Amino acid sequence: MGARRALQRSVLHVASCSLGGSNRLLRQQQQQLEAHHLPTNLQEHYDIILPSHKSGIEKRYIHLDAELISAHPEIIDKHLPSLETRVDIMATEVPKLAESAARKAIAKWGRLATDITHLIFSTYSGYHGPSADLQLASLLGLCPSVSRTILSLHGCSSGGRALQLAKEIAENNRGARVLVACSELTLICFSTPDESKIIGHGLFGDGAGAVIVGADPSTDGECPLFEMVATSQTMIPGTEHALSMQATSSGIDFHLSIQVPTLIKDNIHQCLLDAFRSVGNTDPNWNDLFWAVHPGGRAILDNIEDKLQLHPCKLAASRQVLSEYGNMSGATIAFVLDELRRRREKEQDIQQQPEWGVLLAFGPGVTIESIVLRNPLSRGLKEN
Ligand SMILES: CC(C)(COP(=O)(O)OP(=O)(O)OC[C@H]1O[C@@H](n2cnc3c(N)ncnc32)[C@H](O)[C@@H]1OP(=O)(O)O)[C@@H](O)C(=O)NCCC(=O)NCCSC(=O)CC(=O)O
């Protein structure tokens, strides 16, 4: 009983996070597509309808290239079935992209891949069994006894959901080290320009992120980056229609309602108050926190900033990730955590770093995942 209580009391540490973006720039892809005289002109279309000064997105990376389209022209022909082709390609590429992120996270963590006890894999892009979690475990050489879970169709909130589950596992299994891997490839839903979908196609990019989560860091070099102190998931009632995905013969079709930024704006304050009340803080000053917000779109970040009266620097990490990679759905939050880590390392004065922070991710439901975070360095200073 004593040991059980000690485990439940332990704080949780995000021990390392990393990324492995796919490496083809959308703009370069566009040139290749044009060179192949394929009936698409994506970048030009985006530049008119969603220019970078409006979207906040300068670059995105996609796996799709002209060679792939030459081999599978059905991908850009809405009148031909292409779901099977896409699912086949994803079966290999989703775990491969996750592998590149996971290898970097494991290297930064500093322990052996075989020390990983649990794996949570999240993707909206994989529809194949044995699923991507099993393949990733094989690619990384994880122990055959690694305990695997795959999450699907949580959309952009899946990174937050996976971290929350990892926290539960780590706190309830002594010595557990949970690898969280999110890998997203837009090829599963890619289509040629279409006015009704242009906002979504202008936002999303490919990428993978990986984080290692454990409780009670060992003394052999583990360096916790963030503590996850409390977690919550909130669904905004009556908003099921706002974000949705559906399998069709020509890939996964998605719908983004124009109301999403407003729905988040109207609900975020209460959601945050509830999250901080759960850790005994009934009157948080939002500008005293550090912020890891899923950059679902520029308007979402603007609305949060406006509603909570945040200083512009507070969402700078989220805006930078949006600018450099676009919205990589569930994988994006690992990039934001990594960017916060990088910014924190540049900050000379640890005393100036906020001790408390918050992670927010949004997905279908509309669901808001929130995690109250703590900076282990600032906490250590206070305790010493
Ligand atoms: C796309 C934007 C950057 C565009 O910003 P702008 O400053 O240009 O101005 P704006 O918002 O007025 O939009 C410009 C034009 O696009 C239209 N428009 C905007 N959002 C739309 C949508 N979802 N569907 C269809 N049309 C849309 C507007 O009506 C307007 O049309 P007109 O010019 O005719 O008046 C922004 O609206 C934005 O960030 N929206 C949030 C995107 C979003 O929902 N992200 C969540 C992704 S999903 C996610 O992260 C979770 C998940 O997947 O689960």
UniProtKB/TrEMBL annotation:
Keywords: Acyltransferase, Transferase. The keyword NAD does not apply. The active site is at residue 156. Residues 52-217 form the Chalcone/stilbene synthase N-terminal domain. It comes from the Eukaryota. One of its GO terms (molecular function) is acyltransferase activity, transferring groups other than amino-acyl groups. This is Chalcone synthase. It comes from Oryza glumipatula.
